[in-house]
Amino acid sequence: MTIRAGVVAVQGDVSEHADAIRRAAASHDETADVVEIRHSGAVPDCDILLLPGGESTTISRLLRDEGIAPEITEHVAAGKPVLATCAGLIVASTDPNDDRVDSLGLIDVTVERNAFGRQKDSFEAPLDVTGLDEPFPAVFIRAPLIDSVGDAEVLAEWDGRPVAVRDGPVVGTSFHPELTDDARIHDLAFFESEVANVVSDLG
Asked: What are 76-122's pLDDT values in tens digits?
């Protein structure tokens, strides 16, 4: 089966996420047809979506200006999976703690931008993630902090604070899972959970 995967490509590590999605699909003997989304009209044809990092205020503005934001909301309402990473988590949150960010309200969390420090404060840490047998090598770069969690499920914590969550079909991470050769977070978001199993019924 071929999965149509959309990577929102207004900013962020587009090619790295595309590669990770393809590896995750291949581990299930499936093929991922990855499309880069920069304008409205492409999201409705996608089975899964990825919202990468970048600069959250810019991403949210471009999503609204290009008419992509309501399509993402409709995608989630249909129960289709989304993975939102770093700044993507901020944009997907219900409360980005920043009036400049027009959030999508998809993940019931409050976040704080750049809470883990600046670029020079980047680090890698082994995370115990619910659903994974072995620790995941998470890369934190100007990562947001999840201040509080509403109805979302916490999947991983670092130093006692949530850094990966799931809310329905949406998984959000403070870190950059695409910056490793390990595609298990993409696998978890799109292929492993009961919610993500909707992919098996698509196409």
From this structure: 999 999 999 999 999 999 999 888 999 999 999 999 875 555 554 57
Instruction: State the chain's mean pLDDT as an integer.
Output: 90
| Cα separation values, 189 from 84, 99, 160, Å | 10, 28, 22
Q: Is 178 a catalytic residue?
A: yes
Residue 144's nearest CA partner among 187, 195, 92 is: 92
46 is catalytic: no
Structure tokens at 196: 């993500």
**DSSP structural state of residue 119:** G
Q: Which of 17, 71, 86, 186 is catalytic?
A: 86
Q: Which of 17, 46, 71, 178 is catalytic?
A: 178
Distances (CA, A) of 152 to 33, 100, 179, 186: 29, 23, 25, 18
Q: How many domains does the chain have?
A: 1
Which CATH number goes with the domain that contains 34? 3.40.50.880
Residue span of the structural domain in which 44 resides: 2-201
